[in-house]
Amino acid sequence: MTGRYVALGSSMAAGPGIRPRADSPTGAGRSAVNYAHLVADRLSYDLADVTFSGATTANLLSERQRGTPPQIEALDGTESLVTVTIGGNDVGYVPLLFAAGLPRWTRSLPLLGRRLGDLLDPTALDRALVAVEESLRNVGREVRQRAPRATVLFVDYLTLLPPAGTPASPLNGLDTALGRRVADTLERLTGDAASDTGCGWVRAAAASREHHAWSSDPWTTKFGLPVPGRVAPLHPNAAGMRAVADLIVARLGES
Can you tell me which residues form the catalytic site (predicted)? Predict the structure, then answer.
């Protein structure tokens, strides 16, 4: 396959900390071996990777991020392939897991405790999930309009958390259940958005159930403090990026 490929999304697509680092703006965290680069290399696409760590659906559609234009502006109508991994930052999915992993006593601190409480508030999370449902559909509609000849694939998130009944230390059971509920809902909403807007759906979450961060063969990383030069905690590792690339190549082969 040949043609232009544009990769859109957040850190779950960018691959922060996976070496070697791609040439990209400060803070983008793009890896030269993230799934977009791997797919482009294998299928001879001309890649425009505009994924950016911390991106929301608004950063994809309309809002600048750290001085860079909305990601959607990378589309010019000549694309053969567009992939999209987005939505978790709208909800605060990974931040809630970071909050859950901090020592319990931090929740009693005056300012930090209030922030952690907000991140772990089930009602606030439910409101955010309701909002992101339409945001994901808007992404699908806008990408389809701007890249009418492209194969457009929503790629959902790799599974981070283990199944119910399996510990995810230092996260406690209640927080893990909350995180799992958010992840499951994001997975479903991504699939719904793909179906409703005529896009494809690459089911990375389903393919990685047994490769969660606490498994013996993880495709993602566990909770921890960020360390420069290392793969970001609670994010895909190199094996996970290879697995997602395999899924995308297989999906394109089916097409």
Answer: 11, 235
pTM beyond cutoff 0.90: yes
Which residues of the chain fall short of a pLDDT of 50?
Answer: none
- Structural domain including 123 reads 3-254
Catalytic residues: 11, 235
Tokens of 224: 């921890």
User: Strand pairing partners for 173?
Assistant: none
- C-beta contacts of 128-134 below 8 A and 24+ residues apart: 128/90, 128/91, 128/92, 129/91, 129/182, 129/185, 129/186, 129/189, 131/90, 132/57, 132/87, 132/90, 132/91, 132/186, 132/189, 133/189, 133/192, 133/193
| Number of domain units in the chain | 1
b/e burial code for range 47-62 (CB count within 10 A of at least 16 → b): bbbbbbbbbbbbbbbe
Strand partners, 154: 84, 201
- Annotate 167-215 with DSSP letters as a single string: -BTTB-HHHHHHHHHHHHHHHHHHHHHHHHTT-EEE-HHHHTGGG-TTS
What confidence score (pLDDT) does residue 221 get? 98
Residue 186's pLDDT is 98
What's the CATH code of the domain at 80? 3.40.50.1110
- The position carrying tokens 């559909």 is 137
